[in-house]
Amino acid sequence: MSEPLVFTFTSAIKEGKLKEYEHALREVIAFVETREPRVIALETYINDRSEATTILVHPDAQSQDFHVQVAAQTLERLYQFLDFTKMSIGVYGRPSKQALGRMTEFAQSGVALSLKTNYVGGFNRLPAL
Length: 129
Description:
This protein is α+β, with helices and mostly antiparallel strands. The protein has helices at 18-35, 61-79, 97-108, and strands at residues 5-13, 41-46, 51-58, 82-92, 112-116. Helix 1 runs antiparallel to helix 2 (61-79).
């Protein structure tokens, strides 16, 4: 069994754009849910209406690569409502070389990036896919 791959994406929501962001987010969630059956979880939380964090759980790096390939255009709908100068990305697990390259590009552009790739152990009660 391969280890899961977990991403967290935190970004500021542009002032006055919360409703539009929430609408676009619902569309993205529906898209991923219907077109990417291997995604284990996609959950988004908003604090005091100014910052959103999305948690994305994949069973393996191949699922994440497929996600980027299939959902890239749909994800772009969200970008107009987010302030990427206040973005952070957490990576837990071993992404593919391609994904790691993209994350490194984000970090070089000023996005805070935290990589934790050495799995020590644990468990989850999510159903096996």
